[in-house]
């Protein structure tokens, strides 16, 4: 019998555990180096947060397999705040890397992986919900600080009814990463609630040694807060997409992104329409 313990490195940073996660799950699941952020970048994000040097809220939640010691149901997920875990030996059953961009209230789930030994247990769905809840917690915390409010129940600081779009990236059809065919990955992401936004999308270079990646599709998590067009299709405002693209490029590239011709081409496309329909499968065809 086993229990899965959720540990958020944003709250409980551990360099050794982060390194294990990167080596044991991220590299095998994302073998294409151009699509994988360097571990050093993640370490830097956490350091900047600890020093109060960044507006980015960068999280990595890990699901650690721990012994079920109280006779509860197999497969439960509990908080690490209430569970003693040996971080050096605990098996990492899954992990999710996600970030909230406070200036424009937008978010990205950049990596979500499950150890193949623990697939089919709903761990990915749990991690997506954990991330979305985290985005709203981050947003509420930011608003309370802006308003210098110290009351947790303040209605003015409440962001629960605000739409915070959540974005994903995935390979275009035909791109092979050696782990899963892109079309199969699309089906998995679709089952988790993702929908494709049919717009030209380029990810900025993730390191000095890599190039911008144009082999990706941009997805968003379907939400009941999205509008419905006259054809009965859910849509997302193009301003939300532009806010996300701007936030991502600024985070990775810094201020020079605003004059980058690749970014400017995306911006031009997004300013030509007011909204974009969310596409069912198949994607990218």
Q: Mean of the pLDDT scores?
A: 90
- The number of helical segments is 6
Oligomer: single chain
Uncertain runs with pLDDT below 50, 5 residues or more? none
- Distance between the first and last residues' Cα: 44 Å
Which strand order do you get reading across the main beta sheet? 3-1-2-4-5-6-8-7-11-10-9
- Order of helical and strand elements: EHHEEEEHEHEEEEHHE
Question: How large a portion of the residues is in β-strands, by DSSP E?
Answer: 15-25%
Q: Estimate percent helicity.
A: 25-40%
Cα shape = globular
Cα gyration radius (Å): 19 Å
How would you characterize the overall build of this protein?
There is one protein chain. The model has no long low-confidence stretch (mean pLDDT 90). By secondary structure, this protein is an alpha+beta fold. The chain is globular, with a radius of gyration of 19 Å. The protein has an eleven-stranded mixed beta sheet, sandwiched between helices. β5, α3 and β6 form a beta-alpha-beta unit. The termini are far apart.
């Amino acid at each position: 019998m086993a229990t899965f313990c959720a540990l958020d490195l944003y709250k409980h940073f551990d360099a050794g555990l982060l390194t294990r996660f990167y080596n044991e799950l991220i590299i095998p699941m994302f073998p294409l180096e151009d699509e994988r952020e360097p571990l050093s970048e993640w370490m830097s994000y956490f350091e900047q947060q600890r020093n109060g040097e960044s507006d980015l809220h960068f999280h990595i939640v890990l699901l650690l397999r721990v012994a079920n010691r109280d006779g509860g149901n197999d497969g439960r997920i509990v908080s690490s705040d209430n569970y003693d875990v040996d971080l050096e030996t605990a098996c990492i059953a899954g992990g999710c890397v996600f970030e909230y961009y406070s200036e424009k209230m937008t978010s990205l789930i950049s990596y979500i992986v499950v150890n193949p030994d623990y697939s089919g247990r709903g761990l990915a769905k749990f991690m997506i919900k954990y991330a979305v809840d985290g985005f709203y917690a981050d947003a509420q915390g930011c608003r309370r600080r802006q308003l210098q409010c110290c009351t947790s129940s303040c209605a003015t600081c409440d962001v629960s009814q605000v739409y915070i779009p959540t974005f994903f990236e995935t390979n275009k059809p035909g791109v092979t990463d050696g782990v899963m065919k892109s079309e199969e990955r699309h089906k998995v992401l679709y089952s988790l609630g993702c929908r494709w936004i049919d717009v030209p999308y380029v990810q900025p270079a993730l390191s000095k040694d890599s190039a911008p990646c144009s082999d990706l599709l941009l997805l968003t998590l379907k939400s009941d807060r999205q509008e419905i067009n006259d054809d009965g299709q859910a849509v997302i405002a193009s301003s939300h997409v532009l806010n996300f693209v701007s936030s991502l490029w600024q985070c990775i590239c810094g201020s020079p992104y605003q004059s980058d011709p690749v970014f400017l081409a995306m911006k031009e496309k997004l300013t030509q329409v007011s909204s974009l329909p969310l596409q069912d499968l198949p994607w990218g065809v």
